[in-house]
Write a structure and sequence with these properties.
This protein has about 230 residues and is an all-alpha fold. The chain contains nine helices and no strands.
Length: about 230
């Protein structure tokens, strides 16, 4: 149980610093909707980890199912989706045939999430144990469904050609971090439930680093875009 506590505390500490960056970003750049979404994503992730740490420390248990903490993680993912969907997507992808290649290649990202789900399905015994692990399958399927549209847009905005104003180029480092975060959230769910604890710790360490960097990197990208 200690490695879980330390891992959660690591992500909590990193996300707390990320929240400080987020609050500063909200105060200084409140009118920039894109950056606001990223800030709220980090804030949601912080409260999710705070809930997890509280439950583990005070109740000495780890909930393997979707819970209130998971809702915070979902919130962070959906804020990342909100940042890249809508107006910003229209700016970088005009729907032309030129962008079709990027749209198709970007499908690799959600397909990787599906492959990760299938890996977990295999590790849980496949169809032979599907009823025994039914709750795990359902929970992980919900997590995958939430992540897939998020990672699609972040990955598409990472690889698509640049447009006038340098929006794509300036936000590529942020989108790369967002893709890593989304992959690590999925990997966290899988490795903890397949008892691959070393890999679980790696996913948590990486998540902490990403949550620490998301707002500063996004802010730097938006600043280049706005110049």
């Amino acid at each position: 149980m200690n490695f879980i506590v330390y891992s959660e505390l690591w992500v909590l500490g990193c996300s707390l610093v990320g929240v400080i960056f987020a609050v500063i970003g909200l105060l200084k750049h409140y009118r920039i909707m894109y950056l606001r979404m990223v800030c709220w994503a980090v804030i949601c992730a912080f409260f999710a980890r705070l809930f997890h740490v509280f439950v583990i420390v005070f109740f000495k248990s780890y909930d393997f199912n979707i819970n209130m903490g998971t809702m915070g993680v979902f919130g962070s993912l959906l804020f990342l989706l909100s940042a890249n969907y809508g107006q910003i997507n229209g700016l970088v992808d005009d729907g032309s045939r030129r962008a079709k290649k990027a749209r198709l290649i970007a499908l690799i990202a959600p397909l990787i999430i599906i492959a990760m789900y299938l890996y977990a399905f295999y590790m849980w015994g496949g169809f032979e144990n599907v009823m025994i692990e039914l709750y795990s399958h359902i929970n992980l399927a919900i997590v995958a469904i939430v992540i897939m549209p998020c990672i699609y847009f972040n990955f598409k905005h990472l690889i698509i050609y640049d447009v006038e104003g340098g929006i794509v180029k300036s936000l590529r480092p942020y989108n790369a971090l967002a893709v890593i975060y989304e992959l690590m959230v999925m990997a966290e769910w899988i490795t903890m439930r397949t008892a691959e604890f070393d890999l679980f710790v790696v996913t948590m360490v990486v998540q902490g680093i990403v949550l620490l960097l998301l707002v500063p990197v996004a802010g730097r990208g938006v600043k280049k875009w706005m110049i």
